[in-house]
Design brief:
With 151 residues, the chain is an alpha/beta fold. It has a single domain, classed as Rossmann fold (3-Layer(aba) Sandwich), CATH 3.40.50. The protein contains 4 helices and 5 strands. It starts with a strand and ends in a 14-residue tail after the last helix.
Length: 151
């Protein structure tokens, strides 16, 4: 089963685009979706048995939507929240394995208080949903995941 996690705070403008997009997906029996304000280590339990996981989040450092494979990374920063790569590290530490993982980053423009997405981010929603549908329909292979024998 695949898992898609929409990350963000709906009360902070474009920061809520992850949950907004994930909630717009059609329900499927082979897909688990969830929305969270932030990633926390406890989510390892939900993702460890997945075949693939897709994190959907807003970003401020891009002008276009990007879908990229991600790998475990070190947990940095203060507090309980973590980045997708850090959550993968927690999952690997606790369960000994991780699913193939991807991050869909959607550019945001306005992160002020409010529930509305900016016009710029609203215009990106159809493309974001198309990218997710393509991800669901195919099984993209992260770079470097194939063994020498398969290549």
């Amino acid at each position: 089963m695949d898992v898609i996690i929409g990350i963000g705070n709906r009360l902070r403008g474009d920061d809520g685009v992850g949950p907004h997009v994930v909630d717009a997906l059609m329900p499927r029996s082979d897909l688990e979706t969830m929305t969270v304000h932030q990633l926390v280590p406890e989510l390892s339990e939900q993702i460890h048995a997945a075949e693939r996981v897709l994190f959907v989040d807003a970003c401020i450092d891009r002008d276009a939507i990007a879908l990229t494979p991600i790998a475990p990374s070190e947990h940095r920063g203060l507090g309980h929240a973590c980045a997708p790569g850090a959550l993968l590290s927690w999952t690997q530490l606790v369960f000994g394995e991780i699913p193939d993982a991807w991050l869909l980053r959607i550019p945001g423009a306005d992160f002020d208080l409010g529930e509305r997405l900016s016009q710029r981010t609203q215009r990106l929603l159809p493309d974001a949903l198309d990218r997710i549908e393509q991800w669901i329909a195919t099984c993209p292979e992260p770079a470097g995941s194939r063994s020498e024998e398969e290549a």
